[in-house]
Amino acid sequence: MKKETIQKILKLDGKNRIGLIDEVRGFAILCMVFYHMLYDLVFIFNVDIPFFYSGLMSFLQNSFAALFIFISGASSCFSKNNLKRGAICFGLGMGMTAITAFFMPDEIVVFGILHMLGACMMIYALVARWLNKIPIKTGMILFLVLFVLTYGVYQGYVGIPNLIEIELPWEFYQNNWLIPFGFIPTGFFSSDYFPLFPWIFMFFAGSYFGKLLLQRKMPAFFYQTHSKLLALVGRNTLLIYLVHQPILLVILYLINLFFGMG
User: Fold this and answer.
1) Which pTM was predicted?
2) Rounded CA gap, 15 and 144, in Å?
3) How far apart are CA 137 and CA 255, in angstroms?
4) Are 19 and 226 spatial neighbours (Cβ–Cβ below 8 Å)?
5) In whole angstroms, what is the distance from residue 31 CA to residue 231 CA?
6) What gap in Å lies between CA 189 and CA 110, rounded to an integer?
7) Rounded alpha-carbon distances, angstroms, from residue 172 to 73, 115, 157, 184
8) What is the pLDDT along the chain (262 residues), one digit of tens a residue?
9) Rounded to a whole number, what is the distance in angstroms from the first to the last CA of the chain?
10) What is the DSSP string of the chain?
């Protein structure tokens, strides 16, 4: 798919954009690229990086992912056709599943961030009329709370992690049909996995933030561009996400070939 086509689909025409949103999105995708580089080094090139397994790394990974998804939810308020955007994004995710299944079965992507974002966009398009009836601040708080309460679904519970954990029926985790929602059966693996629970609630919370931006209720700082480079990256996150892994793998392979990393 040509860059111009992707930009047209995602309304990246450079007009009437909100500078800080592009910059934050750009920062988040760069952090994601950095994480994937570490992942490749550890699991494909067998490089020992203790920090990768640390609690701090896990916190940073989830924080940057949450930031990116929150901003994606905010961006949904600026689209005239979230259903179409979502279908294309989900389709690209399915293409990544097919490619990884064929060329890298040990690193297959079953329901990654593109699948999740695509599904969120389509669901948002279908329920936006009802979401719009909820006051902005109430909606944002409500969905952030739901995000926290469902954060442990893939671990078998709902509630507040390490405080109040209500165990979910084990039957939910006995088939593959509920994998997109976070109910994963024993032995499930996906090198990139972002289930709808809890991430759809972070997306919805972001959509209410987008409404504040649309109503010009945020400080002028939000609407200005402070870093042209980050803004440029933020306007091309889908393209970067699609191409960064092949580029990373080639670069790391060449480094390993000539200098050795094991």
Assistant:
1) 0.88
2) 30
3) 49
4) yes
5) 14
6) 8
7) 27, 21, 11, 8
8) 344 433 443 343 344 578 888 999 999 999 999 999 999 999 989 999 999 999 999 999 999 999 999 999 999 988 889 999 999 999 999 999 999 999 989 989 999 999 999 999 999 999 999 999 999 999 999 999 999 999 999 999 999 988 899 999 999 999 899 999 999 999 999 999 999 999 999 999 999 999 998 888 888 888 888 899 999 999 999 999 999 999 999 999 999 888 877 5
9) 36
10) --HHHHHHHTT-SSSS--HHHHHHHHHHHHHHHHHHHHHHHHHTS----GGGGSHHHHHHHHHHHHHHHHHHHHHGGG-S-HHHHHHHHHHHHHHHHHHHHHH-GGG--SB-HHHHHHHHHHHHHHHHHHHTTS-HHHHHHHHHHHHHHTTTGGGTEEEETTTEEEEPPGGGGSSSTTGGGT-PPTT---SSB--HHHHHHHHHHHHHHHHHHHTT-S-GGGGS-S-HHHHHHHTTHHHHHHHHHHHHHHHHHHHHHHH---
Q: C-alpha 139: how far from its chain's center?
A: 20
Give the Cα separation of 58 and 52 in Å (integer): 8
Q: Within 10 A of 119 (CB to CB), how many other CB atoms are there?
A: 24
Domain ranges of the chain: 3-259
Residue type at position 247:
I
Angle between helices 196-214 and 113-131 (to 10 degrees): 50
- Looking at residue 235, its amino acid is R
Is there a contact between 198 and 153 (Cβ–Cβ < 8 Å)?
yes
Tokens of 231: 């803004």
